[in-house]
Amino acid sequence: MSEQKEIQKKEEASKSIEGTQGVQSFTWKRLLAKKWVFPATYMAAAVIILTLMWVYQDAGTKKLSEETAGLDAGKAGQTTTDPGTKAVAVNASQETMQWPVKDRNAVDVSLNFFDTAATNEEKQAALVEYGDTFTPHVGIDLAKQDNTEFDVVAALSGKVTAVDKNPVVGNLVEITSSDGLVTVYQSLSDVTVTKDAEVKQGDVIAKAGRNELEKDEGVHLHFEVRQNGSPVNPEQFLGDHK
After folding, report:
1. Average confidence (pLDDT) over 184-200
2. What string of H, E and C letters represents the secondary structure of the chain?
3. Does the pLDDT of residue 73 top 90, yes or no?
4. pLDDT of residue 146 exceeding 60
């Protein structure tokens, strides 16, 4: 008897569960059968989607605003270039080399630059004899007819990169200009500039003197121009001499 009662209870419980499930299934079917259920579901989904989009866009806009603010702050901290300064730099004219003497008309070119394209006669006249050796002259010599001293001036503005006393070429001064040209002044006396000094075109840097290499020239200035480390004819920068 007890076993039959227990079996009966299980059957009743099973029927109760099935009945409950049936009722729930029936309830959902009735709910879904309502006309307003699907529109309401779509609206709810749309609201959720729109909310997510709004949150995403708001976050992106905020990030973009922060980045823009950062860029603006960076620009605010930058120093702007003065248009006037730029115009001056662009319009600034390059110096034209002047003769390295106070009075060009007071001196003559006593020895020319050795030009490989010159005639044989001109080449021979541009050789320097020292001992038993003839050396091509790599500059021009300037001297007065009365063999007296004269002021030597900077042919270009620049920085004094060498001041030396050489037993062969005498006292010398080397000036390097901003364009890279190097002007060299030898056979000097009474040098008035020092190494690393800044000089302007036309400043007196010494007086003409004598040296051992060109002792036959007497009192004179030996003037060189070097471009990219090599001597070039100064007259191509100075123009024709007298």
Report:
1. 98
2. CHHHHHHHHHHHHHHHHHHHHHHHHHHHHHHHHCCCHHHHHHHHHHHHHHHHHHHHHHHHHHHHHHHHHHHHHHHHHCCCCCHHHHHHHHHCCCCCCCCCECCHHHCEEEECCCCCCCCHHHHHHCEEEECCEEEECCCEEEECCCCCCCEEECCCCEEEEEEEEECCCEEEEEEECCCCCEEEEEEEECCCCCCCCEECCCCEEEEEECCCCCHHHCCEEEEEEEECCEEECCHHHHCCCC
3. no
4. yes
Judged by average pLDDT, the poorest of 23-27, 100-104, 160-164 is: 23-27
**Does position 213 have pLDDT exceeding 60, yes or no?**
yes
pLDDT computed for residue 14 by the predictor: 52
The one-letter amino acid code at 134 reads F
Taking Cα atoms as reference points, which of 27, 49, 152, 173 lies closest to residue 101?
152
Distance of CA 191 to the CA centre of its chain: 36
pLDDT at 63: 45
Alpha-carbon span 105 to 113, nearest angstrom: 20
d(CA 192, CA 175): 13
4 falls in which pLDDT band (50, 70, 90)? low
Q: Could you tell me which CATH number the domain at 104-238 has?
A: 2.70.70.10
The domain spans of the chain are: 2-76, 104-238
Distance CA 174, CA 178 (A): 13
